[in-house]
Amino acid sequence: METNKTELLQEILKEFSTIFAPNDPNSEQQKKVFNTSEKVLRKLGEFHGLQQITQNKLDQFDNLINLLGAKMDQLNEIYKVIDNLTLFVEHVKKIVLKVEGRVNETKKANSRINKIFGRSKKKASQTEKKSKKKERKRIGYRTNDLLAKYDLKIRKSEEEEEEEEEKNENKKKEEKKEKVEEEKKEKEDKENNELKGKKEKKEEKKEKVEQEKKEKEVKEKEQNEEEKEKKEEKEKKEEKQKVEEEKKEKEIEEKENKEEK
């Protein structure tokens, strides 16, 4: 296509040069026209090369956009996981705040008890430490339970996904197997039909040969009977002729005998 355009441009430039430049090919004006034509043609070639490079860059850019789209999908999945973890952390924070509130209430109660019963500061400190330790243990147990439940939920979700993938895989295998069986059956049916067709053609050919054979036998039989009838008729005719000749000879002989007497 580009070659045709270039050739067309050359023709136009040639016509242009013949109109506006002298016919003398050695003239300065004619040389300038041809030099200008060559420059234009070179610029067109460079422009065509730039078009090709630009198209390649656009293709690369499209590929980068597609790759970026795939990465964005992966990033969205990561954001979903982060959101779930954030909700879980918020839930744990609420539990921790409740525990801290209970610890503060315990502190206040211990303070009132110390004031009422005059317990020593050391005893109150020990009680507070024990209370904190006990509460920390309880918080730890509760947190471990929550983490265990969350981990169980995640594992259960993963197992369900694996089961779903396995079901889909098995379904694909079954569909592929059914397709193979169907293609095999179609192939067998086609081969059977071809064999059946060949067999039917063979039978038809055999029947045709038998029919032709019978017709030939009937024809030969009719010809033989006809020849036989002709032969018998000929023999009868010859016999009759012979009798007639003998009769004539006998009459002639009798006549001659009579004449002799």
From TrEMBL:
<feature type="compositionally biased region" description="Basic and acidic residues">
    <location>
        <begin position="168"/>
        <end position="261"/>
    </location>
</feature>
<protein>
    <submittedName>
        <fullName>Cappuccino</fullName>
    </submittedName>
</protein>
<feature type="region of interest" description="Disordered">
    <location>
        <begin position="116"/>
        <end position="140"/>
    </location>
</feature>
<feature type="compositionally biased region" description="Basic residues">
    <location>
        <begin position="118"/>
        <end position="140"/>
    </location>
</feature>
<feature type="region of interest" description="Disordered">
    <location>
        <begin position="157"/>
        <end position="261"/>
    </location>
</feature>
